[in-house]
Each structure stands twice: as C-alpha cells, then as structure tokens.
Write a structure and sequence with these properties.
- The chain has a five-stranded antiparallel sheet.
- By secondary structure, it is α+β, with helices and mostly antiparallel strands.
- It has one domain (16-121).
- The protein contains two helices and five strands.
- The protein has helices at residues 89-109, 114-121, and strands at residues 16-17, 43-50, 57-63, 76-80, 83-87.
Length: 125
Amino acid sequence: MAAGEDQGARPGVGSEMVEGGAEAPPDSAAGGLPSGQAASAGDVELLDMVWPETGLQTTSRVPRRPKDALSEDDTIALQIDFVTLSLTPLEFIQLASFLRMSIDGLLEQHPGLQRAVVNAFDIRD
C-alpha cells in the first residue's frame, strides 16, 4: 500500500485517542477501546512501565480469556503516554516485529546507540 493511502475504516481496530486532539471514532468508547470492550476489571495488564530515563509510560492490556483462547476478534490495548492503540493480537505482534526491525536499522545507522538498546532490553524487577 502506498504512503498516504487509506486502508478504510475498521471499527474498533487501530483507533487512537490523543489528549486534547483527535476525537474517538463513533464506535469507540473512552480509552480508545471498541464499544463493549472498555478496560475493565476483567482485563489482564500484561505490563505497565514508566521508563526512568525519559518518563515514557507504557501499558499493555488484554481481555481475560482461558489459555490460548485469545482470538482476532479480541483487542489488545497498547497505551503509550496519552495515546492508546487498539490492536488485534496479530497487529500487536506485527507492530512488535516492526519496532524490533526499526531498532536494527537505527543501530545500523547510529551504532553509538547500542548501549541505550542494551539497557532498555535489560529490564530488572
């Protein structure tokens, strides 16, 4: 797909909420999640981190399901500071892969950032 080409609307998937910015699509509830799937006590928080070096806050949540029962009809909420992306499990995995490949490209162009990458991936509780 060419840059700038619209993929078409996909209700509840890929929507984002920007503080003081864009409105939620009509089929979205507060928090950028599809209607009926707003974050609830039934969600599982996979990870919630505030990066000490930058203050970047990242959170990921999935609906509570039995083991191996998550489907492409479910939505994973990825919150980065004040932006929430609502992604299918496959989209979430593809985004993670894209980010990893982007880091490889960044290091190829700027190898001096290797220490920052090592530190970011060496997370200790």
